[in-house]
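Observation: inputs received (chain + zinc ion).
Thought: call the complex predictor directly.
Action: predict_structure
Action Input:
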Amino acid sequence: MTDWRIDNARHTRGAALHVQKYVRRSDEWEHDHCEACTTKIMESGANVLTEGYTTTDKYRWICAQCFNDLKGASTRFLRETTPEAVADDIERLLSGNYAAWDVDDYEHLNPRDRDLRELWRRSMQVGGLPEEWVRLDHEHKNELRDIVRHLKQLGAHGKSGPRKFSGPDA
Ligand SMILES: [Zn+2]
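Observation:
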């Protein structure tokens, strides 16, 4: 089955996305559209969406409906920034089995979740640019694999354990 939305959203292929509330960019630029179905996304209003999945630079938006429909359309068409996804990225980069966008994507990942961001930062400090990781020595590769283990623990914890709340009302 082909979906016209896949072609519309082709520039977002492979991008790491996270869900967030829409925030206007300026007085003149107060809305965006879902790249796939063109539904309007803005801060508030009737018959508009107020949140969506966006790239780290917030220049591309995909609505939740399209995200859910398209993420399975082809592998890695869309994905959410989760500890498991970051662990997969590192393993792929270590093995040399990656596409050009993977490297660029990984360098600009900067996850919002604090624990996840910390592990991502650590990985970026181990051995230089991700495209060089495949040529790292044993010791540095093991450091990265150690980070992968921590990421997987973080992912497992996030799913099974109760959510940690930081607010006083939680
Ligand atoms: Zn959409």
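Thought: report the result.
Final Answer: The beta strands are 15-21, 31-33, 40-42, 51-54, 61-62, 78-80. Residues 4-70 form one domain.
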